[in-house]
Amino acid sequence: MKKQIYSVNGTLSKGFVGQIAYTVCLDRTYHTLDAGLSFDKRVLPAITEEVKEEVRQQVKELYGGEYSSDEELTDACSSMKTEIQLLVNQNDIFIGGIHRQLTDRHMIISKNFATEGGIPQDEISGVIKIIVLVFNVLQDDTHYTVTLSVDEEEAVC
User: Fold this and answer.
1) I want to staple 91 with a disulfide (CB 3.0 to 4.6 A). Which of 30, 38, 45, 126 is the partner?
2) Is the pTM above the cut of 0.90?
3) What kind and span of H or E run contains 56?
4) What single DSSP character describes residue 62?
């Protein structure tokens, strides 16, 4: 039976880029870990003239260029997304990362199984560090949640 042992919520501002780390000291050894990440506001709600003008200005300032047509600009705005990823370390050793661009993702790691991006571990113990990697936030007040669950029935004392 899965038991959530840690949960934290945060709010990100538009344009934020960086890393946020959370550290959890496990009380005992477990066989299965589930690290979860969810967030909202993945895409823009609408491609308004204001949004297009902001993107035009950024392209001009950052790259010295401009879009050749309004259609090209609209296509570029439509493909923009908030990008947030998750890394998990156990006792300062990398054991997995979630890179899929879904707004609700889980990485499960056990001795005989790990979801894509994870590395199977003989046991889960010690210090778990969860690192939220934020590459692009499109909107203010983008909320995220990080969870850590273990399999309570498989605990090793």
Assistant:
1) 126
2) no
3) helix 49-63
4) H
Tell me the per-residue pLDDT of 10-47, one tens digit each, with 9 for 90 and over.
999 999 999 999 999 999 999 999 999 999 999 888 89
**What 8-state DSSP symbol labels residue 116?**
T
Q: What is the DSSP string of 19-48?
A: EEEEEEE-SSBBSEEEEEEEES--S-S---
Give the C-alpha separation, 35 to 8, whole Å.
12
What is the Cα 135 distance to its own chain's centre? 9
What six digits make up the tokens of 85?
Answer: 């990823």
Residue that is written with structure tokens 């300062």 in the block: 92
27 Cβ neighbours under 8 A, 6+ residues apart: none
Dihedral pair phi/psi, residue 104, rounded to 5°? -140, 110
H or E element at residue 77:
helix 70-79
C-alpha to C-alpha distance for 155 and 53, rounded to whole angstroms: 55
The CA distance from 42 to 44, in Å, is: 7
Q: Is 140 helix (H, G, I), strand (E, B) or coil?
A: coil
Quote the CA–CA distance of 154 and 55 in Å, as a whole number: 51
Cα–Cα distance between 42 and 125 in angstroms, integer? 33
Beta bridge partners of 90: 93, 128
Q: Which residue has the tokens 């850590």?
A: 148
